[in-house]
């Protein structure tokens, strides 16, 4: 089964909708309260576990990441989780 990159966009839309409805609070730092960052972490773990990204998909995600994040990831061997998580964080921070 191949990974569908549109799942990352769908996950980001879900997180942004939950922010709008107040289900997720950006201001709360208590570990038991869901925040956009913790939700992105959880969703990235689920998505990365579903099926591995192809090399082409990894490159496609890298292409859209913030240059600073991309440089950090390029300096190592980013895993699927790293790429999906960073892309989710970037998408949920967009207006």
Task: Describe the 3D structure.
The longest helix is centred in the N-terminal third of the chain and has 15 residues, at 6-20. Helix 2 packs antiparallel against helix 5 (80-92). This protein has 95 residues and is mostly helical. The mean pLDDT is 87. It has one domain (6-92). The chain has 5 helices and no strands.
Give a quick precis of the structure:
The protein is mainly alpha-helical and 95 residues long.
Order of helices and strands: HHHHH
Biggest sheet: strands, sense, closure? none
The share of residues in helices is: 55-70%
Tell how many strands the DSSP assignment holds: 0
Mean pLDDT: 87
Measured distance between first and last alpha carbons = 33 Å
* Structural class assignment: mainly alpha
Radius of gyration: 13 Å
Note the total helix count. 5
Domain module tally: 1
Beta percentage is under 5%
Shape annotation: globular
Poorly predicted residue ranges: none
Write the layout of secondary structure elements.
Elements (H helix, E strand, L loop, with lengths): L5 H15 L15 H15 L4 H10 L2 H8 L5 H13 L3
């Amino acid at each position: 089964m191949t990974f569908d990159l549109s799942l990352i966009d769908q996950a980001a839309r879900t997180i942004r909708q939950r922010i709008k409805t107040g289900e997720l609070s950006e201001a709360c730092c208590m570990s038991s309260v869901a925040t956009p960052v913790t939700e992105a972490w959880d969703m990235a773990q689920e998505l990365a576990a579903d099926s591995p990204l192809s090399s082409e998909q990894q490159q496609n995600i890298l292409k859209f990441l913030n240059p600073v994040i991309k440089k950090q990831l390029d300096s190592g061997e980013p895993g699927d989780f790293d790429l999906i998580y960073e892309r989710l964080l970037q998408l949920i921070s967009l207006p």
